[in-house]
Write a structure and sequence with these properties.
Strand content: under 5%
Structural class: mainly alpha
Amino acid sequence: MYGIENYLGFIIAGVLLNLTPGADTMYILTRSITQGRRAGVYSVLGISTGILIHTTLAAFGLSIILAKSAIAFNMVKYFGVAYLVYLGVKMIVEKNNLFDNKTQKIETTDLFKIYRQGLFTNVLNPKVALFFISFLPQFINPHYAIGPIPFLILGMTFLSICTIWCLILAYSSSLLTHALRDNTKIGKIMQKITGLIFIEFGIKILTDK
């Protein structure tokens, strides 16, 4: 089919890869648990949009520039690290309780902010771009591939798997919101821990070769 090989194997690999926690997973969990289901869904939409961008870039070969240009790679890498560290530090220094009803009341502008942060968390991670241009070709026969079509099919398949899993994650974790809402101590501890995890992800991206 359009030069795609072992499509079932790609689906299985996509499921397993999505089960592996990363910065995207942590962002969804944080938003869903602390601000509820709507915030979780908008964070998923932001991350899914980021994956769609990576898919388009990989399909039309633009991500190759990122892989071959040290300058381009390092620019995206440092922007991604800075953004993750910024989110982490912000969570650590903020004194608000994550589960405070008043401080966590969601407005339309807040939802867009949540979406935008999810988008940037994904797009500014160079490892995601390199993943697409190194992983997708493993399931494509170059002798029978028809332009960007097989890349788009595999990318959209991965996007569907990711979106479904992330929505399940957002919905299930949002159920903890009401159970934890009245525990201010847990809210503050979770905020600091989440901030440290984001900083750790940033440092890991920075130190990875």
